[in-house]
């Protein structure tokens, strides 16, 4: 069920026309809170007879308890196993029978469930979401089934793939020190295998509560009418006590960290470089998002042009800020700007890093040119608005922003924030944050080329 920054193209095309100054576009949106603590955000969109819904719960892989690695991910799957009233498969059939879709995603800071369908399915969707917020079909059979699904997902995406997404899963574990930021959020098999049905039920009771959730709905309806429907279906779901949020802040990194790892499936080596980033609410975080795109976004990016095209020390370069999250603007704790570089076997880590550091130093010294800054800012604003045009994607952005801040305003302010980023800010950001003492590097080498000194630990 997991998706990463997926553009959901199954919707009917919308006809929203943005004004000349796109950053000022704000569709009608309102927020209310039910007595049980459920926060509800409604945004009307009458361009097509469709509806997009997202409900985000304040539990993600960063927030799962010690000894419960992968539980947030496991529960993303468990929520599709049905309830005593609506058995497994009912949710999918109800929504998909009219041409809609249902999905979910586990992030560092939330788990979201989202669906899109013709507006005629709205009542059924609300009833089904409220039903699985009340309780699930807690059975050992369902637990065993989804535990196997999650473990197979880990095997397919990590254990049996070259590089095994090490730049997403291994790098944060080396770059951060506190358990919330430095554990395997995909799930260690020992923790998943040790879970029993009582553990799963307890986890649900702690985190899957209306007072730990934000429901956002976008589509072809009247706001007052829809608020009445939400109150009808959700007001009977009782609130629950939720655990305090763990302390996730990290102390300042004092020195560069270097690790070498073996890879039995890779044919050529790869580097992952991760820089610790400022807090989401800091102005520097927006500047960092722009800097990340300048460095990594496509073949016109600085790193691709320098490492792949000019110096030919790399085969590919990708990355960005909060690469393993929903977007570079949607996180609520320590994150990294990550560069993932695959390089030829006849090049050394030192050669690649020398070229990489030269590109970073050039940005820190000169900043971006007006043309490349304009290109990146325009693309980032266009991408953000493209998502806001889709009802389900707008519902996701509204839900996430409200979960973090108690207000949906950030979902609409991102384009304006991006448009105000200056070349001097990017230059200063690179000089402050993209420094050796603030980074962690993993060199992933094919096992046949193993360095006898490599241990997998810091060097």
Describe this structure in words.
The chain has 16 helices and 11 strands. The protein has 459 residues and is an alpha+beta fold. Strand 1 (29-33) and strand 2 form a beta hairpin. Helix 3 packs parallel to helix 9, helix 10 packs across helix 16 and helix 11 packs across helix 12. The protein starts with 28 loop residues before the first strand and ends in a 13-residue tail after the last strand.
Q: Which radius of gyration do the C-alpha atoms yield?
A: 23 Å
Give the distance, in angstroms, between the N- and C-terminal Cα atoms: 37 Å
In CATH, what is the class of the largest domain? Alpha Beta
User: What is the share of helical residues?
Assistant: 40-55%
CATH homologous superfamily descriptor of the largest domain: Metalloenzyme, LuxS/M16 peptidase-like
SSE blueprint:
Elements: E1 29-33, E2 39-44, E3 50-57, H1 71-78, H2 90-96, E4 101-106, E5 111-118, H3 122-134, H4 140-159, H5 166-175, H6 179-182, H7 189-194, H8 197-207, E6 213-219, H9 223-234, E7 257-263, E8 270-276, H10 283-296, H11 302-310, E9 316-321, E10 336-342, H12 349-366, H13 370-389, H14 391-405, H15 409-419, H16 423-433, E11 439-446
Helix pairs in contact: 1-4, 3-9, 10-16, 11-12, 12-16, 13-15, 14-15
Describe the structure in brief.
This protein has helices spanning 71-78, 90-96, 122-134, 140-159, 166-175, 179-182, 189-194, 197-207, 223-234, 283-296, 302-310, 349-366, 370-389, 391-405, 409-419, 423-433; strands at 29-33, 39-44, 50-57, 101-106, 111-118, 213-219, 257-263, 270-276, 316-321, 336-342, 439-446. With 459 residues, the chain is of the alpha+beta class. It has a 6-stranded mixed β-sheet, with helices on both faces. A 5-stranded mixed β-sheet has the order 7-11-8-10-9, with helices on both faces.
């Amino acid at each position: 069920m997991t998706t990463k920054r997926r553009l959901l193209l199954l919707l009917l095309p919308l006809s929203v026309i943005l004004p000349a100054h796109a950053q000022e576009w704000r569709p009608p949106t309102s927020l209310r809170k039910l007595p049980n603590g459920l926060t509800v955000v409604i945004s009307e969109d009458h361009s097509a007879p469709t509806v997009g819904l997202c409900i985000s719960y304040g539990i993600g892989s960063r927030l799962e308890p010690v000894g419960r690695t992968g539980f947030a991910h496991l529960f993303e799957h468990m929520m599709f196993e049905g309830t005593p009233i609506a058995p497994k498969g009912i949710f999918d059939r109800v929504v998909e029978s009219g041409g809609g879709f249902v999905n979910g995603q586990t992030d560092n800071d939330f788990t979201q469930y989202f669906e899109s369908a013709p507006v005629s399915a709205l009542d059924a969707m609300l009833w089904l979401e409220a039903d699985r917020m009340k309780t699930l079909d807690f059975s050992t059979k369902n637990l065993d089934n989804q535990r196997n699904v999650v473990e197979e997902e880990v095997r397919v995406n990590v254990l049996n793939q070259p590089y095994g997404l090490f730049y997403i899963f291994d790098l944060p574990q080396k770059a951060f020190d506190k358990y919330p930021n430095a554990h395997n959020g995909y799930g260690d098999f020992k923790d998943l295998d040790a879970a029993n049905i009582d553990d799963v039920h307890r986890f649900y009771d702690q985190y899957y509560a209306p007072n730990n959730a934000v429901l956002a709905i976008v589509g072809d309806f009247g706001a007052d009418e829809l608020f009445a429907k939400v109150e009808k279906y959700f007001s009977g779901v009782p609130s629950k006590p939720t655990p305090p949020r763990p302390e996730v802040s990290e102390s300042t990194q004092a020195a560069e960290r270097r690790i070498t790892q073996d890879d039995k499936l890779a044919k050529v080596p790869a580097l992952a470089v991760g820089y610790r980033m400022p807090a989401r609410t800091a102005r520097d975080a927006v500047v960092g998002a722009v800097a990340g795109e300048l460095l990594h976004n496509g073949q016109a990016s600085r790193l691709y042009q320098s490492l792949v095209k000019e110096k030919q020390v790399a085969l590919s370069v990708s990355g960005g800020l909060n690469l393993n999250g929903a977007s570079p603007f949607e996180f609520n704790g320590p994150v990294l700007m990550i560069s993932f570089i695959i390089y030829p076997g006849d090049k050394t880590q030192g050669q690649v890093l020398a070229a990489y550091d030269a590109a970073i130093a050039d940005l820190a010294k000169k900043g971006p040119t007006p043309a490349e800054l304009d290109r990146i800012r325009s693309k980032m604003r266009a991408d953000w608005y493209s998502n806001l045009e889709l009802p389900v994607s707008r519902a996701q952005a509204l839900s996430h922003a409200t979960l973090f801040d108690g207000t949906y305003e950030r979902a609409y302010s991102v384009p304006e924030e991006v448009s105000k980023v200056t070349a001097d800010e990017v230059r200063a950001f690179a000089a402050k944050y993209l420094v050796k003492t603030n980074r962690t590097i993993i060199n992933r080498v094919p096992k046949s080329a193993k360095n006898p000194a490599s241990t997998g630990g810091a060097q």
